[in-house]
Every structure is written in structure tokens, then in C-alpha cells.
Design a protein that fits this description.
654 residues, alpha/beta, four-stranded antiparallel sheet, 15 strands, globular
Length: 654
């Protein structure tokens, strides 16, 4: 369980303020810091204000902890208790609570008229809209994100999607919403079966030759990748194979409503297929903007079947073929579900019905997958209700907000296996720290495409190294200042407090505007510069109010990066920074093709050249290392006394 982080503290606008409905106000971070001088705020008052506030990190895996400021004020943190996925019930009604008592308290206090300003782009409406939960649901929000088809290791496109929705999930929870987050696994699909068959042909004894086992293995690998990216686990992760009865029941309902039909047998005499009849549903195409009468693209993953009544008709149930290794009994014979029916049936089962608040996924899922999900949901509600063409565009019919993230392009080309520019998340982790990939993905606004390249990743590494080394310097300087006796009680570092306040306000405005994460990144720049000035300049080392300034700036920095999913604050903040810097350096050496011994030899050779006043050779060795992404910092030493260096983007090969 995560402890109270500095993000909770920043919500207090002054020592005498109250937390308004547990929702963030327009006041900025500096409100607390500006009003704080050493010893001016009574611990009992702070504890009283914070006692009803639950931290916004909803996962026990968060590295949240007490900030240095809260430790010195002796705050006793509350802990947020959220059931892990394994403990969640198999069905969640739209009125049930899956969060802690503190969330229930916030729910009772929720006021729609004073809800936080948050504009979210709705694909159905083609515009940004104010986000609010369903009327009567208080602060409860339901969010479903389409998960992976588990037939291979996840690629960086998956990372792009799930980092985006992790940022959204964190932000909604931060705003005081009680979010039930669900993400599925597709563990039965043509691709899974094909991959399992290939494995079984190579080795009949390989356990991954069974589709369910194959999907389970790649689902496990997916969790490992997401954990390294610091993506919080959803409350539930339903699997398609666990919901076959619900899918069959839903298909029967659509057949009864005359929106679906069993197909005739194919040329080999195999039947059992069931299709959705798109032409029976006026308004189909509202989400994607496609018109079935003008577009000849079929709405499924396999080739167009002549047994379909229309080209857009898509498979709800696929009859078993001769050598199919996975199949279930149904009213239409042995077979397995189509792709699109999975999510519709699982959403109905998991949330207890429609609509949900947010449905998310990659932009490539807008059509056919999400369009067909919406069609199925409408068709399952009855024949007469669906005859109104306007019903398809009604946001409350299935999902109230449709959210779609942008693609990943590789060196400005679309990522594709056929182009040979396809990278798995694990491919990236072999050469770069996970933080770098998350930074690259989270620093781009979620609806835009991300241009992935080694240069882009190395720039993220460079940014993170500078950021965490600055924060480490700040933590060490703060500890030293406190050790030396701390601030004069009358000290008031207005300039630094104003920087912290401005950053908080900028971050609030950025996140309120459809998760404008690039502006959040920009807000960190003046904070880090101010910390550097305090730590590195003579004036900064001697300034009055140094403790208060560092406390405010560090808290503002942690709050800023927290919005991107980097949970760095806490009692072990300095050690966390230090270990990450070591990790970044190790990755840079690996990319350079050097061992620590290799680097040591080159550094010794350069030191010898400088000693002999052979400056041309010294410069050559320095420039050679710089091309490999290793920048020497003359005048500084590592802890072991060796010449200091830091990773930088490579400029070539030595």
C-alpha cells in the first residue's frame, strides 16, 4: 500500500485551509510552501487536514512514501487499500465500490457543480468535452481499455497505449474519482492458434503448443513489461476464455433481435458460423465515420466470406474446423468466439451493464473493433431501440467517452513487421532503462503519434539523467542544511516559492487540457534550474531560507513528474535517484559497446595525456568517448575518485 506522498501535502493551500470535497482546487502548489516557515505549522493541524485524504496512487506497487517535508512534520500517513486484481470479484455492478473507505467518503462529498475542470477528447463527439461521471454515480468512474492479443511479446505500440491510459487512470484518481479500471486479455484468436500450431509442429512436447498455455505465457510476460514501465495494474483483467457462456448468451440475444444470423456451411461442409448483420443497424459507422454503403473494407480479421449477407458483416462465432485445437460447444455446434464479441460481453459481465464512462484503445481499434463493439451493444438491447439512427451516436449507449491514443512511428515510418522496423518492449529494455521508454511515451500528448528512434530514446535518457542527478543534489543539500541547523524562522525565499507555485499551476492547467503532458514536462524546467542554482552556486549555498526553498522545489518537482507516472519522492528518494543514475550509466556503456574496464583504460589514457600536456590527444580521447554517448565532466570526480562522466546522446561511432 502506498504511503501519503507529497502530492497530498500540496493540496493544502495554507495552514488554515480545508480540503474542498477532496478535490484539487485552483490554488497552486506554492500555497502551502509559501505559507510555511520552519515550525509555523502545527503538526496536529496538518494531521487533521490530511487524515481524511487518501493518496492518489492506487497500487500497492507504487514507490510512494513520506516526503522529507512530511517526515519532519511527523505526519502519520493514511494508506489507500485497493483490492488487487486477484481479489476483485468476478462481477462489479456499476454501483459497487472497489476502493477504500476514504473513496466512499469522497463519493458522498462529490458535487458535480464543483467537479474538477478536466477536458477529455471524445472520439464520438470529435471534440474535447468536460469529463463528468454518470449522473447519480457520485465520483465513481468506470474505465475499460482493450488489452493485448497474447500470442507474442508485446511491442512498443502496446507500451504507448498502456502508458497513456496509466497516465489517465492516475490523473482521474488524483482528481478524487473512484475509478474501476478494467483491461482484458484476448487469449483465444486466430493468431494465437496459428502460433501454437507452429510451435507444436516443431516440438509436439512443447507446452506452448497449446493455445491457452501460449496465451498465459505471453500474458505473464506482458505483466512483467508493464511492471517495469511502472504501469499500475487494473482492478480486473478478464480473459476471453473465462467468458464464453456470456458471449454465447449475448449472441443468442442478437439473433433473437434479428441483428445476427447463423451462416450456411462452407465448401467443405463445415458450418456453425454466426455473423452480425450490419445492414439491420441504422447508424453503423458513427464512431469511425465509415459508411458501409461506400466502404468495401470488411469488419473482421479474416478474408471476406461469401456466406456473409453483406461485406461489413463480421463473425460473432466461428464454427470449428477439422484440426482446430481449441473449441467450445454452442447452440450452433463446436466453435469459438469472434474477436469483437469478447469485449462487449466482458464489459457487460464485469460492470453489470452499459454504459461505462470511458472506453479506450489505440486509434487502430476505432474501426473495426470499437465500431463493432458498439454495434453489438446496441443490438443486444433490442430490435426496436436500435431502429433510431441517432442512437448510434448517443454517447451513453455503450461508452460515454471514447478515447484513442496515437501510433508509434519508427524513424518517421509506421511500425510494421513487414518493414522490418518492429520492436518489442523487451528489445528496447535490452539497451535502455524502462524509465527512458516511459518518458519518451508519456512526454508526448496521448493523441499524437510518437516518433521512436535511438536518438529520441537517448534524449529521454539525457533528460532523466539531468533530472535525477539534480534531484539527488537537492535531497543531499536539504539533508545537509537540516543537519547544520536548518533555516532561520524568518526566512522567506519568495523567488523559489513562486517558481514552485507557478509550476504547480502550469501542471494543473496542462493536465486539465486533455492530458497535455508536454506542458507538464516544460513546467519541470524552471524547478530543476532553481534547484541547481541553490546547490551549485555560491549564492545558493549561502542563501537564507535554503531549507524552505529546497523543500518547496523538491516537492513541486516530485509532484510534476508524478503526473507522468514517475513516483520518485519518499523516504528513500535519494537512494532511488542514486541507483537509477547507476542504471542509466550502465545502459550507456552497453550501448557504447564498452565495459567498465574499457572505459577505465580510456580515462586513464586521457589523464596521462593531460598530465603530459598532450592536449591534442586528450581532446581526441574526449571526443571519441562523446561520439559513443559518454561525456566527460572535467573538474569533477566520481565517488571512487575517477574522472566523472555522464551519458549523452551518441553522435556517431568512434
Amino acid at each position: 500500500h502506498s504511503e501519503l506522498s507529497v502530492a497530498a501535502i500540496r493540496r493544502i493551500s495554507s495552514p488554515s485551509s480545508q480540503v474542498n470535497n477532496m478535490l484539487p482546487s485552483s490554488s497552486c502548489f506554492g500555497g502551502f510552501s509559501a505559507g510555511y516557515t520552519r515550525g509555523s505549522m502545527q503538526t496536529t493541524s496538518a494531521s487533521r487536514l490530511l487524515s481524511s485524504y487518501a493518496p492518489y496512487h492506487p497500487s500497492s506497487r507504487s514507490r510512494g512514501g513520506l516526503s522529507s517535508l512530511s517526515r519532519r512534520l511527523s505526519f502519520k500517513p493514511r494508506r489507500l487499500v485497493v483490492p488487487p486484481p486477484a481479489a476483485a470479484s468476478s462481477a462489479l455492478s456499476t454501483t459497487s465500490s472497489t476502493t477504500s473507505t476514504s473513496s466512499s467518503t469522497r463519493s458522498e462529498a462529490f458535487n458535480r457543480d464543483t467537479a474538477p475542470a478536466f477536458q477529455l477528447y471524445n472520439t464520438m463527439a470529435r471534440t474535447k468535452q468536460p469529463f463528468l461521471p454518470r449522473p447519480g454515480m457520485q465520483n465513481k468512474v468506470t474505465m475499460y481499455v482493450c488489452g493485448i492479443t497474447a500470442y507474442d511479446y508485446s511491442h512498443i505500440g502496446h507500451a504507448r497505449a498502456y502508458v497513456c491510459y496509466d497516465v489517465l487512470y492516475r490523473h482521474l484518481t488524483r482528481l478524487g474519482y473512484d475509478v474501476t479500471y478494467v483491461r482484458n486479455f484476448t487469449d483465444v484468436d486466430d493468431k494465437i492458434i496459428k502460433r501454437a500450431d507452429e510451435i507444436r509442429e516443431r516440438d509436439p512436447n512443447d507446452p506452448l503448443g497449446e493455445p491457452v498455455a501460449l496465451a498465459a505465457e505471453f500474458s505473464r510476460a506482458f505483466h512483467e513489461d508493464m511492471d517495469k514501465l511502472s504501469c499500475l495494474r487494473p482492478h480486473q483483467e478478464p480473459r476471453a476464455t473465462e467468458h464464453i457462456p456470456e458471449m454465447i448468451e449475448f449472441i443468442e440475444t442478437m439473433i433473437g433481435n434479428e441483428h445476427a444470423y447463423p451462416a450456411s456451411s462452407d465448401d467443405d461442409g463445415v458450418g456453425g458460423d454466426v455473423y452480425f448483420a450490419v445492414d439491420t443497424l441504422p447508424g453503423y459507422g458513427a464512431l469511425s465515420g465509415r459508411d458501409p454503403s461506400k466502404d468495401n473494407r470488411a469488419g473482421e480479421r479474416i478474408a471476406v466470406d461469401g456466406r456473409k449477407r453483406g461485406p461489413f458483416d463480421f463473425a460473432l462465432w466461428k464454427g470449428a474446423r477439422k484440426n482446430d485445437s481449441i473449441k467450445w460447444d454452442s447452440p450452433w455446434g463446436l466453435g469459438r468466439p469472434g474477436w469483437h464479441i469478447e469485449c462487449t460481453a466482458m464489459i457487460k459481465k464485469t460492470f453489470g451493464g452499459f454504459p461505462i464512462d470511458i472506453h479506450g484503445g489505440g486509434r487502430d481499434l476505432q474501426f473495426p473493433h470499437h465500431e463493432n463493439e458498439l454495434a453489438q451493444a446496441r443490438a443486444g438491447q433490442g430490435r426496436c431501440q436500435c431502429d433510431d439512427p441517432s442512437a448510434a451516436s448517443e454517447p451513453d449507449s455503450y461508452a460515454r467517452y471514447w478515447v484513442h491514443n496515437g501510433f508509434v512511428n519508427i524513424d518517421n515510418e509506421k511500425m510494421s513487421k513487414s518493414l522490418g522496423n518492429f520492436f518489442t518492449i523487451r528489445d528496447v529494455f535490452e539497451r535502455y532503462p524502462p524509465d527512458a521508454l516511459r518518458h519518451l511515451l508519456a512526454s508526448a500528448q496521448y493523441r499524437t503519434d510518437v516518433s521512436y528512434s535511438d536518438t529520441a530514446l537517448e534524449m529521454s535518457c539525457d533528460t532523466l539523467y539531468y533530472t535525477r542527478s539534480t534531484l539527488l543534489d537537492g535531497e543531499l543539500a536539504l539533508a545537509a542544511t537540516i543537519e547544520a541547523g536548518g533555516d532561520d524562522k524568518k526566512a522567506n525565499p519568495k523567488e523559489q516559492l513562486a517558481i514552485a507555485a507557478t509550476a504547480r499551476e502550469a501542471c494543473d492547467k496542462a493536465m486539465e487540457d486533455d492530458l497535455n503532458t508536454p506542458m507538464v514536462c516544460a513546467a519541470a524546467v524552471p524547478i530543476l534550474k532553481a534547484i541547481n542554482d541553490i546547490c551549485q552556486t555560491k549564492a545558493g549555498r549561502k542563501m537564507k531560507g535554503r531549507q524552505a526553498a529546497l523543500e518547496a522545489l523538491l516537492a513541486a518537482a516530485y509532484d510534476t513528474f508524478d503526473r507522468l507516472g514517475f513516483v520518485w519522492g519518499g523516504s528513500d528518494a535519494a537512494e532511488g535517484h542514486r541507483s537509477s543514475l547507476i542504471e542509466y550509466k550502465a545502459a550507456a556503456l552497453q550501448r557504447a559497446g564498452l565495459t567498465e574496464g574499457d572505459l577505465s583504460e580510456r580515462l586513464s589514457a586521457r589523464e596521462e595525456a593531460r598530465k603530459n600536456k598532450d592536449y591534442a590527444e586528450s581532446d581526441r580521447l574526449r571526443d571519441e568517448l562523446a561520439k559513443l554517448g559518454i561525456s566527460l565532466q572535467d573538474g569533477k570526480k566520481e565517488e571512487d575518485g575517477s574522472p566523472a562522466w555522464r551519458p549523452v546522446p551518441r553522435t556517431g561511432e568512434a
